[in-house]
Specification:
Its cofactor is (6R)-5,10-methylene-5,6,7,8-tetrahydrofolate. With 488 residues, the protein is mostly helical. The protein has helices at residues 40-52, 71-91, 109-114, 128-140, 166-176, 209-217, 235-256, 270-274, 280-288, 294-316, 329-337, 349-353, 360-372, 377-390, 394-408, 415-424, 447-450, 455-463, 480-483, and strands at residues 12-14, 26-29, 56-62, 94-99, 119-123, 145-148. It binds flavin-adenine dinucleotide (FAD).
Length: 488
């Protein structure tokens, strides 16, 4: 692959030393970047295919045993995958899918698809299962494997390495943004792959909602965790939200962002970003058209580009980004020094999951995760800080925060999940004074939520939303990400 001459070269990383070879196709394995357009993973595969006169075979598979597998996450991923199939057909690309279930069990499918391929192109994701899956396949297959960053506007490798603070990152990142903003979908110059396959694919693209839901119902996942009505998993919904962002959210964003009661303060794009149904380039294109002062655009871009991409950048430098060890030493030490202090607000995991604790504001926050599969940013800050005092010690606090965030939130299991949780546990400037339970780590009260006009009424209504019940263990799993690394 003539990598060095590609404009996108910093997005692409070879994962093994296997040579490119002859084969019937370039395999493009989509793990999380579930979009057919503006997708650097697909574009890299198509460019490589065009260079070698080969078609691309796009593959998406969904196992039933990933950590926290549920109806909510499965329906979202399969909805996204369905639109990938339809979009690929529009682009003249063959796309095959597989949904793992008892009635149709395929073993080692990625290896079997990769075995004859000239090369395998997959996504470079630094958290959750995609990274270890990619590394494992790269180590075990004889096929050349390339990982492509699709999540960021500026690929982390294009930045100087070793940047240590958000402000230093922001300064460097801002200088590179214009160079990475434009893209053109790569046109395949070869007819779609129509040759033999080692299995009978599922055809999600031709399924209606009823068939797709029936398919999810046949999978052994947590069906008690209902899908979120707030986040339909379709590209049509993404496009509606981009229009809403341009016309309603951006004009109000700077003033409304910290007020959870004002819908125009949130784009609600994070689930779609997490599952790669939209990328930052397309979002930046949408906001370029907004009739708003530059400051409004800049405020939004700072969240989407500085903060989100900082956490992606940072996750790449950590061996296990999900681990509590990422919290600075001083913060872990001060929390540990206070670990044996009495917790007047100690809660069971069941009460936490269901938002049935003694803290009404916290319950209002948690009900958003439980029922909507998403929480407003301002509430997440209070929610995470307070959790430290509701759990017996900081390690359990971290495991609980990851468990609640990752099991319930559509945008969980993301570099932004662990980066923001680390902020709550002390990855920021110390607070003022040495306090009970928190030590030097800054705390947060619910005053800013409660003292808004009609704040108490809003909290009471949000906390009392009726809910369903989930099965909850006594304790959160300590390291679900490592212990559930099953063979692929
Ligand atoms: C304790 C805690 C846990 C969090 N967990 C997650 C998580 O699991 N997944 C997740 O994507 N975000 C997480 N965030 C960041 C932020 O709260 C959400 O991204 C945001 O609320 C999503 O809503 P939105 O799309 O309407 O955001 P908007 O305000 O519309 O922002 C647009 C986009 O910018 C990005 N963004 C905004 N704020 C942040 C931030 N603080 N850090 C990183 N990116 C940001 C998101 O991609 C978001 O979709 C967390 C924040 C906190 C304080």
């Amino acid at each position: 692959m003539s990598l060095a001459t590609w404009k996108d070269a910093p997005r692409v990383r070879p994962l093994n030393e296997a040579p490119l070879r002859d084969g019937p196709y370039i395999l493009c394995w989509l793990q999380q970047a579930l979009r057919a357009f503006d997708n650097p993973v697909i574009d890299a595969a198509v460019r490589l295919g065009n260079e070698r006169g080969l078609p691309v075979l796009i593959y998406h598979g969904l196992r039933e045993d990933y950590p926290f597998a549920s109806d909510r996450l499965h329906r979202f991923a399969l909805g996204a995958s369905r639109d990938v199939a339809r979009g690929c057909a529009e682009r003249g690309l063959a796309c095959v899918q597989y949904v793992d279930r008892a009635a149709k069990r395929e073993k080692g499918l990625v290896y079997r698809l990769a075995a004859p391929a000239a090369a395998l192109v997959l996504e470079d994701q630094p958290a959750f299962v995609a990274q270890w899956q990619a590394e494992r396949v790269a180590a075990r297959t004889g096929t050349a494997v390339f990982a492509v960053n699709a999540a960021c506007l500026v690929p982390p490798a294009a930045l100087e390495q070793g940047v240590g603070t958000t402000s230093a990152f922001r300064r460097r990142h801002e200088k590179l943004r214009d160079a990475w903003r434009d893209w053109t979908d790569e046109e395949p110059s070869v007819a779609p792959y129509a040759g033999p396959l080692p299995y009978e694919p599922d055809h999600l693209g031709s399924m209606d909602d009823a068939a797709s839901n029936a398919l999810v119902a046949s999978c052994a996942v947590d069906h008690a965790l209902a899908p979120s009505a707030m986040f339909p998993p379709t590209r049509a919904e993404v496009l509606l939200r981009l229009t809403r962002l341009r016309d309603e959210v951006l004009p109000a964003y700077a003033g409304a962002r910290n007020d959870a009661r004002r819908p125009e303060g949130a784009s609600t794009l994070s689930p779609y970003l997490h599952f790669g149904m939209v990328g930052p380039r397309e979002i930046m294109g949408a906001i370029a058209e907004a009739d708003v002062p530059d400051e409004s655009r800049a405020k939004f871009a700072d969240e989407l580009l500085s903060w989100r991409e900082w956490f992606h950048y940072k996750a790449r430098s950590l061996p296990v980004p999900e681990n509590y060890a990422r919290v600075p030493k001083w913060a872990r030490a001060t929390l540990q020094a206070h670990a044996s202090e009495p917790r007047p607000h100690l809660e069971t995991l069941d009460a936490l999951v269901h938002g049935e604790t003694a803290d009404e504001t916290w319950n209002a926050c948690q009900k958003q995760y439980l029922l909507d599969g998403w929480m407003h940013n301002n509430l997440r800050m209070y929610w995470a800080k307070k959790l430290i005092a509701m759990t017996p010690d900081p390690d359990t606090g971290w495991a609980t925060a990851c468990y609640l965030n990752d099991r319930l939130s559509l945008d969980g299991r993301d570099p932004s999940t662990y980066g923001n949780l680390a902020w709550a546990f002390g990855d920021a400037a110390p607070g003022y004074g040495d306090r009970p339970i928190y030590g030097l780590v800054s705390t947060r009260t619910d005053r800013s939520i409660r003292e808004r006009p009609n704040g108490p009424e809003w909290i009471a209504a949000a906390a009392s939303r009726p809910t369903f019940r989930l099965t909850v263990p006594d304790k959160p799993p300590v390291d679900p990400y490592l212990t559930t690394k099953l063979p692929i």
